[in-house]
Amino acid sequence: MISISIRAFRPIAASCGRFVSTPSLCSRNSDHGINRKIFRTRRDCPFAIALIPPISCFVGEPMKPLLPLVFIAFTAMSAIAQDAIQDPVDSLILDGTATNLNEFLWIKRPLIVFADTPADPRYVEQMGYITERLDFLDERDVVVLTDTDPAARSELRKALRPRGFSLVLVGKDGVIYLRKPAPWRVREITRSIDKLPMRQQELRDHTGGS
User: Fold this and answer.
1) For residues 167 and 183, is the Cβ–Cβ distance under 8 A?
2) Element (DSSP H or E) covering residue 61
3) Does any domain span residue 70?
4) Which tens digits make up the pLDDT trace of 40-79?
């Protein structure tokens, strides 16, 4: 048996049409091992010519319809991955007009920032302090709630009754521990939190566990 390279046949096959050397497309039950449902022959050409080019055909055109499907699937998976990765700022700073303090009882320490408008310079200053040191608040189980819409008459406003700008710290036990009419730096806020009895117990438990 003489083995001949496929490359040697390509110039000849090109003059006859597309050629495929795929053994799986041949049937032993058909004449000369050629499946005539897939191939046709020409009198002037010694090769079988594919009627339906497979995906592995060197021309590559059958792959084109699959490319949009691959792109759509990749885009969908990327969107799902982005949604799964939540921004830490979004998880620690919440809209206070749609929340209730009971949601955080024994779980978080709500730090509420009130203002009559988000353009209040004191509100802007306070939120700047918070976002700069958000990791220190996260370590102390703090969740920041903002309310800059007095007309909404939120549950937070009904419970705490702020006037203009106000900074309020509530413990995990639901007790109000701090009220400030002016912005406070995170360092001052965390010092106040670390003096709370429950926070002291958390520190002792952490030290004993380590």
Assistant:
1) yes
2) none
3) no
4) 555 555 555 555 555 544 444 555 555 555 556 655 555 5
Residues 56 and 100 in one domain: no
> Number of structural domains, the chain?
2
Residue 67 lies in a domain: no
SS3 at position 184 = coil
CA 95 distance to own-chain centroid: 21
Can you tell me whether residue 191 is helix, strand or coil?
Answer: helix
CA–CA gap between residue 158 and residue 89 (Å, rounded): 26
Token pair for 125: 């200053």
* 115 lies in the same domain as 195: yes
* Dihedral over Cα of 114, 120, 126, 129: its sign: positive
* Residues spanned by the domain of 155: 88-209
CA torsion sign for 132, 115, 192, 159 is: negative
**CATH number of the domain to which 165 belongs:** 3.40.30.10
Write out pLDDT tens, residues 101-129. Answer: 999 999 999 999 999 999 999 999 999 99
Nearest to 160 by CA among 86, 96, 83, 106: 96
The encoded tokens of residue 117 equal 């408008």
